[in-house]
Design goal:
Radius of gyration: 19 Å
Strand order of the largest sheet: 3-4-5
Order of helices and strands: EEHEHHHEHEHEEHEE
Shape: globular
Strand content: 15-25%
Number of helices: 7
């Protein structure tokens, strides 16, 4: 950044070593790179910030637990370049989780997934956040899916923060100003839902 600071648990990450950062922050890219590594080895790579000279029994236990949590047991010895998009995304999230981060950053984690896999992946992320008491920050274009799973929101417009706050505090005006489209907000089964108005 040209100015300011980025703090994670009151620590300025620009003053931390790369290893310290990787112990604090896990990252899941929009599209993970497939390779000839196995699912097990790919997830084990997430333990790299904690491994000194060799992999320990604890590292293997953590990886095994993540594989079970994400229902990847039958795929553990498959190469990641043979997986479907949804399976590959689970591997990427599992790899980030085994880092034991305090914060997970996710870039459009469901962009290439079908509806079933979107809900499954986001439900999994929410469970991880609650059970492990970690923060998750994700970028999303699907407003209704974001509102269903998020606690807080931040709208960007023209490279600047337009508005931010609790999801329950979102108003139609903010959405209309950011998206340039008239909308209605409804509560459906306890979740805010955005319904765009068609032009004319």
């Amino acid at each position: 950044p040209a100015s300011g600071a980025i703090l994670v648990e009151d620590r300025d990450i620009l003053k931390l070593s790369l290893q310290a950062i990787s112990r604090s922050i896990g990252y899941v890219a929009q599209q993970s790179q497939a390779s000839r590594m196995t699912v097990f080895d790919t997830i084990l790579m997430g333990r790299r910030p904690h491994i000194r000279w060799k992999v320990k029994e604890r590292d293997l236990r953590i990886v095994d637990a993540a594989i079970k949590r994400f229902s990847l047991t039958r795929l553990a010895l498959r190469h990641v370049d043979s997986l479907s998009g949804g399976e590959l995304q689970k591997v990427a999230i599992a790899r980030a989780l085994v880092q034991d981060p305090r914060l997970i950053l996710l870039d459009e984690p469901t962009s290439s997934l079908d509806l079933k896999n979107q809900i499954e992946i986001l439900s999994m992320i929410k469970r991880v956040v609650l059970e492990h008491q970690v923060g998750a920050v994700m970028t999303m274009h699907d407003l209704n899916t974001a509102l269903r799973f998020a606690d807080r929101y931040l709208f960007l417009k023209n490279g600047r923060i337009h508005s931010a706050g609790k999801v329950s505090d979102i108003r139609t005006r903010a959405i209309e100003e950011v998206y340039g489209l008239a909308v209605d907000l409804h509560n459906v089964d306890g979740h805010l839902t955005v319904i765009p108005r068609l032009p004319g």
